Every structure is written in C-alpha cells, then in structure tokens.
Amino acid sequence: MKFPKPYSLKQIADLIDCQFVGDDNYPVLGMNEIHVVEPGDIVFVDHPKYYDKALHSAATIVLINKEVECPKGKALLVSDDPFRDFNKLTDYFKPFVASEASIASSAKIGRHTIIQPNCFIGNNVVIGDNCVIHANVSIYDDTVIGDNVTIHSGCILGANAFYYKKRTEGYDRLKSGGRVVLEDNVDLGASCTIDRGVTADTRIKAGSKIDNQVQIGHDTIIGEKCLIASQVGIAGCVIIEDEVTIWGQVGVTSGITIGAKAVISAKAGVSKSLEGGKSYFGIPADDFRSKYKEIASIRKIPEILEKLNNQDKT
Predict the structure, then answer these.
(1) Where are the domains of the chain?
(2) Is this structure's pTM higher than 0.70?
(3) How many angstroms separate the CA atoms of 223 and 257, rounded?
(4) CA distance linking residue 79 with residue 83, whole number of Å
(5) In the CATH hierarchy, which fold is given to the domain comprising 108-291?
(6) Of 32, 38, 160, 191, which has the most beta carbons under 10 Å away?
C-alpha cells in the first residue's frame, strides 16, 4: 500500500504514538507485508525469530517491538505492539467507508458491461468493458476488473484476509487494506470467494478460468491461462505461475509457489512448492513417478511382513 503522499518518520511515529530511531524527516512512502515490501515501505515484526528477516528485507522502515541495532540507511519505529500499530496505520490510510448505494457513486463501469440485479459494487471499484456480472455478486471496495470478465452469481470479491494474532482475550484480526485485481478475460464460476490483499493485491491474471466454489486467499497471485476446478482452496501468499491446472478439491498451503504448466490432480494436498511442467497427486502432493513408486513400496509391506513372520517360525 502506497501512501497518497510521502510522510516523515516523525509524522508516522506521531500517528501511532511510538518512539523512533532515525532522522525526523526520513521519508516513508507506504506499508506492506514482508513478501512485497519495497524501499520506502514500513514492515512490522513482533517476534525475535523474524527480526533479521525484517531488518534485512527491502523495507527501509521497520516497526518493531524492541529497539535493536538499526541497519545502515534504515529507520525503526519502536512500539510495544507492532501488530496493533500496523492496524492503526491501515485504519488511517485505508479506513472503511460505508457505501450509500448498491452501486457506489465512485464506481466506474465500462461500456457494454452488464450488471444483473441484486449486485453490490463498492467504493472505487473499476470494471472494464464487455463484462457480465450475474445476480447477487458482491464486489468490495477498490476491486479492479478488466475487460471481457464474467462473474457468476454468489461470488464475493474483496473480503478480509484470514489473518489473526492470538491474544489472551481472543483473536485479533490484521486489517486488510489491499485489493482484488482480475485481469482481462477471466471467468469466475458461481460462489467463488477471493480475499483482498492485506496491503497489496490478490491478482488473477489474464485468461484464467475458475470453476464454482473456489476460495483464494489474500495476496495470492494466479498466473495467466490457469484452470482451477471446483472446491479448490488456496491459502494466502501463494504464487501460481502461468497455465497451471488444478483439479477439484485440491488444498494449497500458504506461501508456496507452483511452477508454470504444472497439473495437480483432484483431492491433492499441496504442502510445499512444486516444480513446473510436471503432474502431481496425493497427500502430500508429489509427482506421479515418485508417488507411484511410493504406492508400489507400500503394497509390498504385507509381503515383507509375511516373509519376516515365516522366518521367525523357522
């Protein structure tokens, strides 16, 4: 998330009432999660295990819960609760604004685009030309949709990221200020749900086709011309490269990459990054050759046990 204008380090510290290390006028340009940070961004960290990763990331301002040695050329915001203060900044720069109509006055809808009855189109939504949005679709604030996109009934674009911090009183949600972006020629089947990014974009690239009842988590990037079948669940921060095929009921864990032109068979559980150009199945998912060897080995277990029992008898 980029701020509408540059802020100084002191201005940001004043907003969240915290101490800072660095020049008062050190420029702050935005805020982002660690996997998408750029110079000028704030990143937050609240556990010593991740201090080094945050301090040596591309971010140049680190919101941290302990004053540590600051890397050269960077600045610190020292807070007793970075998670809370990151949320404060999201509220300040991207506050929730209630819509006053089913189709917000700030929404921009392209030529020859059809919006069927009972749809909700939020603030600052942009929809391109020649799209069809079927009945009972909800498109939350700031979503961007390209040309020639079809969205079937019951889809929800832009719900909050499923991202919580456990506290003694319960779970505290990390607030979402990012967007959903659908590029040109994307099709969404009925009742798909696509969560917005925490600070950046959840993006479906051009030409990808998604079946009914698919869940796509925050900040996930799906490449061009992918095919994703019904009831697939994809967690947050996943990168799916171009022309990947994922069949029904596959589950994909967070933070991994699936290489271009991979094919994942139905009901697979993807728990690690997968190389492109191969076919995978099983739980955990592995390529066909390795998985069939594993199955063949498992089938030999009764035979091996029988031989061992016979040896014991003799």
Answers:
(1) 2-93, 108-291
(2) yes
(3) 11
(4) 9
(5) UDP N-Acetylglucosamine Acyltransferase; domain 1 (2.160.10)
(6) 32
Tell me if residue 112 is catalytic: no
Q: Please tell me whether the peptide bond between 117 and the residue prior to it is cis, using omega within 30 degrees of 0.
A: no
Neighbours of 120 (CB within 10 A): 16
Question: Which one is catalytic: 35, 56, 152, 218?
Answer: 218
The length of the chain is 314
Q: Which positions of the chain have pLDDT values less than 50?
A: none
Q: H helices within 258-287, ranges in order?
A: none
Cα(106)–Cα(121) distance, integer angstroms: 10
106-118 CB burial, b ≥16 within 10 A, e <16: ebebbeebebeee
**Does domain 2-93 bear CATH number 3.20.20.300?**
no
Contact in structure between 267 and 285 (CB atoms under 8 Å) = no
The dihedrals phi and psi of 144, each to the nearest 5 degrees, come to: -120, 125
118-147, pLDDT tens digit by residue?
999 999 999 999 999 999 999 999 999 999
C-beta separation of 130 from 146 below 8 A: no
Q: Which of 177, 170, 230 has its CA nearest to residue 202?
A: 177
